[in-house]
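Researcher: Sit down with what I've pasted below and flag anything odd:
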Amino acid sequence: MEPLSFQEYISSLDPATLPRILRICSGVYFQGSVYEVSGNECCLSTGDLLKVMAVTLQKVICEDTATGQTTELPLTFKGEQGCPVSARTQWVPSCQVRPLQPMGVQPYCPTGLFQPTPALGPCPTVRRPFLESSRQECLMLHQVLEQWNGQPQPLLCPTISPHALLLHPVYEVHAVMHLRRDVVKIPSTLEVDVEDVTEEAQHVHFARPLLLSEVLGMEEALPVQAEILEGPAGPAIFKSAWVPRLQRGQWLQLHGRSHTWRVLASAPGSGRHFLLSSAYQGRFRRRPRQFSGVQELAASLRPGRQLHVVVTQDCEGQGDDVPPLGVGDRLEARGVQGNGPGTRLLCYRHDEEEEGEELLLPLDLGGGFVEEVCDSKKYRLEELLERQPLPCEVRVVAPDPGLDRDALGTLPALRLEARLDQPFLVGSFCEEPDEGFEIPPRWLDFSVLLSEGPVHPPAPCNRHSRVEELTEAFYYQLLAQLPGGLAPPPPRPPKPAQAGTGLAGSHPSASRPPVPNTPLASARLAPPLPPLPALPRPSTPSQYGQRRPSRDAGEAPSASQAPAPPQGMNSADNDYETVDDNMQKTISKMQTIFPF
């Protein structure tokens, strides 16, 4: 067939013949960087194929043949309710032809009805005898569109205009294109020429890309080979060697869905984070947990479980209510009592020589504690999670024998944080079908194109997916997405100010003047300053513990101002240097600059 404009073809298309395949004969390109406007396709290239699946009427454009003005009619147009305000007013025909009607009778105007025009004269207008004699031929808007033959016919509708009208329906075409994931929506008014090639293009297959997350739900289509159309977007989540190979053009063998679950783990102090598979064959041993205060101790309690700890750092008491704790004290944490600032942790202190006692420790109490563990059994990952609630700290005592190099075996400690039941997809590269890996489509999603035909590959070995090291950015992103947040515990309340705290570093037998009561005195002490240059030894010895009277800068000391050494003491016996006022001022300035 000869090429037609897209509007002409769609207007004359019989919906009963769908689907139809069209070839673009003259493409169109929207002058911009977008390919869609309001969800509709606006750029088509010459030679593209379209498979028209459905056609939907969007609106009708009404054109006045006399004035050239256009009006958009809604699909529910019924006359007075949908036409412009000017059309609702009484009109007078522009031609010098009077309607044949009795005197005093207003012309009849059927609301929202269309009629074919009679033979077109110099000015086709509505005339009363034509309306009265042809009322049975008046059609509603939807009836006119049902009788549409592809060519606009002159019609009369006195509700809109006294002149002949041309109706132009506008359709929305739903089509399928090659390598397009979604159905393409194209307006019929797009200025392209098309040609119907349905008969000669019956063998054409319109390939539809799929996301890996969509393939995960198509278990009946697996196993299958797939070509990567677009690699994963965003930063990497695994530090494995197979992740950078997921590039455009790479062919994958998708075997099926993995039935393993995962455990999120991290190595304290090393900044490394891992994802352990339930297929991991290593052995674990429980490791005592360490707590740096009563607040952390209370946060680690579980309902119905008691926690036995040993004090590893001396802790001063708080009056008569809170006795001091010493290194080696064995405590049994039983539960939390009270609410608000008066919350206390109920503990029982065991004493081998005397009877134990119950203690109520405030949450702001410091100190150090270590969990008392008497379990030396080696556990598999599944057995450990059945006996120990997460999070918990363990140590790998027997690496996985199936791994060439188990990264967990060299770590002194491992913190198991949460169990994850995310679905994984087993895959391998077509050039290496035996070396498999497991992809989490919800975290690592990309576009693929499935091949045609059944595939029966052998099952790959997935031992390298038993331990996946995570990037630091994805680890914290994963923590935020987990239910419950797994956020770190709230910060410890500030410790109560201890009386008698002064500046450190003074000689034990030296008497220093009292520190003035300033905000700096109650603040945390600054880190040690760099060593100051040695001061010149004064020519006149000074008495230990006695300061020289202050003098102005640059004033030379006199012999009368120098204190005499005590009787019986030689100046060589006094090894102490005197800090003059200038140095005291320098120290005060440094403390002001670094208010720690």
User: Anything to note?
Assistant: Residues 288-371 form a domain with the SH3 type barrels. fold (CATH 2.30.30). The longest helix spans residues 581-593. The mean pLDDT is 76. DSSP finds ten helices and 29 strands in the chain.
